Amino acid sequence: MTAKGKGPDNPADDAADDFMAAMEGVAPLQKGNKAARLPSGAGNDLSAAALDRRQQAAQGLLTTEDDNPLTLGEVPQLNPHDVLEWKKDGVQNEVFTKLRTGGYDLEAQLDLHGLSVKEARTAVHKLLQYALAKGYRSALIAHGRGERSQTPARLKSYLAYWLEAHDDVLAFHSAQRFHGGTGAVYVLLRKSAAKKAETRERYGLKGSDQDPLSY
Fold first, then answer.
1. Distance between CA atoms of residues 155 and 146, nearest Å
2. Which residues lie across from 27 on neighbouring strands?
3. Whole-number pLDDT of residue 195
4. 3-class secondary structure, 105
5. What's this model's pTM, rounded to 2 decimal places?
6. How far apart are CA 54 and CA 83, in angstroms?
7. Which end of the chain lies in a sparser environment, N or C, as judged by fewer CB atoms within 10 Å?
């Protein structure tokens, strides 16, 4: 039986299919699985055919390449073992400490091993879009250290720059050793409007300026 409103000529179905295909590399994690280890190797079906499918899906999901704000220009170069740490003004120290120590449930993960900077740019953009749409607050991105690369820590350097420049990223910090150490990063995302309203209702607060958890 075909659901009402669905069919080969329905553009909404095509968009939904493209969206699901585009999110092939984004894996939600079970709540409370704080010690989940990253997949070994690339971990996300990084064959040429799979990457081509992802790129095609992304072209259907995004109106133009300009919809991706992440730069491909030159960025400050980091060292492979540098600790990534950054937070926006207003993020409380206890929140940042909880992120730094791996205290948040990781709701999505992305493995960038084996990707070029251009491919990683698309994958990170899709992850952030997907997490925000789902109301996720935290994610784990494995970027590697790039110690054997021609330009060490190249991907790590780009990721750090992208995350700091993104409006919806509140904070990030290199992961604990069991999550990849300085080869991975925890990311804290801005709370959606629906989540803010839920928090205000839970704590009986009327204005977001009164809500310490509303960012």
1. 7
2. 109
3. 65
4. coil
5. 0.65
6. 30
7. N
DSSP letters for 128-174: HHHHHHHT--EEEEE----TTSSSTTHHHHHHHHHHHH-TTEEEEEE
| Sheet bearing 184-189, strands edge to edge | 27-28, 108-111, 138-142, 184-189, 169-174, 85-87
Cα distances from 90 to residues 71, 167, 173, 211, 215, in angstroms, run 25, 14, 16, 12, 8
Quick: pLDDT tens for 162-177.
999 999 999 999 999 9
CATH tag, 19-28+43-210: 3.30.1370.110
111 phi, psi to nearest 5 deg: -110, 120
In one letter, which amino acid is 203? Answer: Y
Domain ranges across the chain = 19-28+43-210
Instruction: Report the C-alpha gap between 70 and 77 in whole angstroms.
Output: 16
Crossing angle, helix 11-22 and helix 48-61, to 10 degrees?
140
Which residue type does 183 have?
Answer: G
User: CB of 111 within 8 A of CB of 185?
Assistant: no
What is the C-alpha separation between 215 and 210, in angstroms, rounded? 11
Given a contact cutoff of 8 angstroms between Cβ atoms, the answer to whether 196 and 214 are in contact is yes
Confidence band (pLDDT; 50, 70, 90) for 67? confident
